[in-house]
Amino acid sequence: MILIRRIIKTFMHNPMPDEVQDNFVHWFLSKGECDLKNKALEEEWIEMCEDSREDTMSSVARWSRLREIHRKMDDHPLKKTGLYLSWGAVAACVVFFFLLASWPLFFKVDPETEVHTCYVTSSLGKGEFTMPDGSHVWLNSDSRLEFIGDLSGKVRNVDLYGEAYFDVMPSDAFFVVNMGGIKVKVLGTEFNARNSESYGNYEVTLKSGKVQVESDSFDSVSLEPGQQFIASTDLRRASVRKVNADNYTSWTGEVLSFDNKRLETVIVNLEHWFNVDVEIDKTVDRNVRLSLTVRHESLSKTLDLIKILVGCNYSSTGEGKILITQ
Fold first, then answer.
1. CATH of region 254-325, choose from 3.90.550.10, 3.40.50.1100, 3.55.50.30, 3.30.565.10
2. Based on the number of CB atoms within 10 Å of its own CB, is 129 exposed (0-12), middle (13-18) or buried (19 or more)?
3. Rounded-to-integer distance, Cα 39 and Cα 37, Å
């Protein structure tokens, strides 16, 4: 058990050559010593969850490392056979973890005081959850949402890393989404929030109700339905604009369908559907119209179709960013 925990810690904290990573994934997904590996990984999750409260650099690094391991597991032949590991109740801790990429991760850590709940999605999955106060949240891929307690206090605080769509249960208690440099305060409403260091911005899009965006770096901003707040992660630039909120929330559904829609509109939807950043070069006509449906197609297959329909090209610029050119 000690050796297995040491192996897992080593891979969570240190960069490894691809060949070594592949060997680790193969070993972890194999059936041998399954109970011991479950227990060791469970203990690692608990420790990570406790560290994440302090929001230290080590905590962020460990979450990033775990996402890398998830991606390796997503493409591993053993995973494709349908093998998954699940954790049951252990003492005061309840954990459910599925290595299949399309399944969300949900776990609770119950210290002596209050329950710390964390919802996490893998790089290829999305999750839908109902919170203790009755609020509904959809988590996009590679995202996590955390909160302490049962959200029954005077303020319902949650921490978001990534992208989420909220349908907040009306209450006299403010619902506050902390996103690092900014926070979103609401009473009851539907809105999309995106906190992504990779894409270099914060994004809040209001579908109904009213929200207030606050930060120590600027005066609070109130949004009306159909408005979007966007700011750089260094908060040096911030603005509010009018948008079609449906284009930024369609990723929560099971299918994307476009009928004679502008390329620019299609790309906005796809950005959130695949949780990527897509830039359209100025040489490409953003107003060209196209019709297509996306269900289970991959990003590359979808872009290949757009390439045929529009007569454009695309390339990856790294860190999940895509550039569309003529």
1. 3.55.50.30
2. middle
3. 5
User: Tokens representing 135?
Assistant: 């609020």
List where CATH 2.60.120.1440 sits in the chain.
126-252
The rounded distance, in Å, linking the Cα atoms of 299 and 304 is 9
Cα-atom radius of gyration of the chain, to the nearest Å? 21
Strands 155-167 and 190-196, sheet pairing: antiparallel
Backbone phi, psi, residue 99, to 5°: -80, -10
229 has which bridge partners? 204, 240
- What tokens were used for 159? 């921490």
Q: Which of 203, 321, 229 is nearest to 267 (CA)?
A: 321
Tell me: pLDDT of 208 over 90: yes
- Round to whole Å and give the CA distance between 280 and 156: 39
Beta bridge partners of 262: 289
Tens-digit pLDDT profile for residues 170-198? 999 999 999 988 999 998 899 999 987 66
Sequence-distant (6+) residues with CB within 8 A of 54 are: none
Residue recorded with tokens 């494709």: 80
Residues of each domain in the chain carrying CATH 3.55.50.30: 254-325
Compute the CA torsion angle 25, 31, 32, 33 (nearest 10 deg).
90
Tell the CATH topology of 126-252: Jelly Rolls (2.60.120)
Structure-token pair, residue 259:
């009928």
Dist CA 56 CA 315 (whole Å): 34
d(CA 182, CA 218): 10
pLDDT of 23-58, one tens digit each? 666 666 665 666 677 677 667 666 665 555 444 444
What global pTM score does this model have?
Answer: 0.67
- 49: helix, strand or coil: helix
Structure tokens at 126: 């999305």
* Tokens 């769509």, located at residue: 165
Here the tokens at position 155 are: 């303020």
